[in-house]
């Protein structure tokens, strides 16, 4: 991505900075002033402690949105994006709490893979067999579907809300950090009817096969490989200091010499 001789030594750091500059339509990029992590979940869930700790360390704020109705979830996600952007957010980190089966089944259908390919590591052979069967049944219900029909067939209000949130953020030209199988899958779903690619930075990749498939479909290379299981917004918050470092280094490197 970086083609300036001054930026070549900084590799992916300058890539992240130039991505942000393109989103902001200015060069060099300016450091985001209001970073918001927005996490969608059904009733009874809470923000993981690790996510709260990471947000505190980088000065980001977290919004928790409860979503339970599939029929209204997409619109709720759109409204949440509008609320954050209208409130001054200039960098968004979407997150969601749901079963791994949601992303696995959706990406299995979109990538036209067999259930055994999208099943992640399981504690035992019996658990693996049960997971394969559940994902196989879910994929059967989704067969031949695309776009909003596919999202509805997932029967996940969290996924639907994430698709609405990320689609609206892209429409409103607001950059997004993507760090988990569920959010990457939501981005892949959103890409069916929204020009979302340029507004996404993949901060890391998890061991879940659905995550790899989603990033491949989106043509995104992750900034980091932290070898950790998905925790909502944690990967993006962990990568944020590197993004900000890249912004500062790039600004220094491209300043005219006195």
Percent helix range: 40-55%
**H-E string:** HEHEHEHHHHHEHEHH
CATH topology: Rossmann fold
Number of domains as seen in the coordinates: 1
CATH architectural category = 3-Layer(aba) Sandwich
State the shape: globular
Q: Spatial order of the strands in the main sheet?
A: 2-1-3
Quantity of strands, as a count? 5
Report the CATH C-level class.
Answer: Alpha Beta
Distance between the termini: 27 Å
CATH evolutionary superfamily: Nicotinate-nucleotide-dimethylbenzimidazole phosphoribosyltransferase (CobT), large domain
Beta-strand residue percentage: 5-15%
Structural class: mainly alpha
State the oligomer: single chain
Poorly predicted spans:
none
Salient structural properties:
single chain, 258 residues, mainly alpha, Rossmann fold, 11 helices, 5 strands
Describe the protein in words.
The chain has helices spanning 11-24, 49-58, 70-86, 100-110, 115-118, 125-142, 147-153, 157-171, 181-190, 209-218, 234-253, and strands at 35-41, 61-66, 91-97, 176-178, 200-202. The chain has 258 residues and is mainly alpha-helical. It has a single domain (8-253), classed as Rossmann fold (3-Layer(aba) Sandwich). A 3-stranded parallel sheet has the order 2-1-3, sandwiched between helices. A two-stranded parallel ribbon has the order 4-5. It is globular, with a radius of gyration of 18 Å. Keywords: Glycosyltransferase, Transferase. One of its GO terms (molecular function) is nicotinate-nucleotide-dimethylbenzimidazole phosphoribosyltransferase activity. This is Nicotinate-nucleotide--dimethylbenzimidazole phosphoribosyltransferase.
């Amino acid at each position: 991505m970086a083609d300036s001789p001054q930026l070549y030594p900084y590799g992916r750091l300058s890539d992240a900075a130039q991505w942000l500059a393109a989103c902001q339509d200015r060069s060099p990029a300016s450091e985001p002033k209001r970073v918001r992590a927005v996490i969608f979940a059904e009733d009874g869930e809470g923000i993981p402690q690790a996510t709260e700790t990471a947000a505190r360390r980088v000065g980001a704020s977290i919004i928790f949105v409860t979503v339970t109705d599939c029929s209204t979830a997409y619109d709720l996600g759109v409204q949440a994006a509008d609320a954050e952007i209208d409130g001054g957010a200039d960098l968004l980190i979407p997150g969601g709490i749901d079963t791994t089966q949601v992303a696995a089944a959706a990406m299995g259908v979109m990538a036209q893979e067999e259930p055994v390919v999208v099943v992640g590591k399981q504690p035992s052979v019996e658990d693996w067999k049960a997971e394969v069967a559940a994902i196989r049944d879910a994929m059967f219900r989704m067969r031949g579907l695309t776009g909003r029909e596919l999202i509805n067939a997932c029967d996940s209000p969290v996924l639907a809300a994430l698709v609405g949130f990320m689609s609206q953020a892209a429409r409103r030209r607001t950059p997004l950090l993507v760090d988990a199988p569920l959010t990457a899958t939501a981005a892949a779903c959103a890409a069916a009817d929204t020009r979302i690619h340029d507004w996404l930075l993949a901060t890391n990749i998890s061991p879940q096969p659905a995550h790899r498939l989603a990033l491949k479909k989106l043509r995104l290379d992750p900034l980091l490989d932290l070898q950790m299981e998905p925790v909502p917004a944690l990967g993006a918050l962990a990568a944020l200091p590197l993004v900000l470092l890249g912004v500062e280094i790039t600004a220094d490197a491209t300043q005219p010499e006195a």
